Amino acid sequence: MIRIGVVAGSTRPGRKADVVARWVCDIAAKRPDATAELVDLKDHPLPHFDEMLPPSMAPSTRPAVRRWGAAVAALDAFVFVTPEYNHSIPGALKDAVDFLYQEWHHKPAGLVSYGVHGGTRAAEHLRLVLGQVSVPVVRSQVTLSLHADFAQFRDFRPGPHQEATVGTMLDEVVAWAGALRGLRRPQAVR
Question: What pLDDT, on the 0 to 100 scale, is given for residue 189?
Answer without folding.
Answer: 45
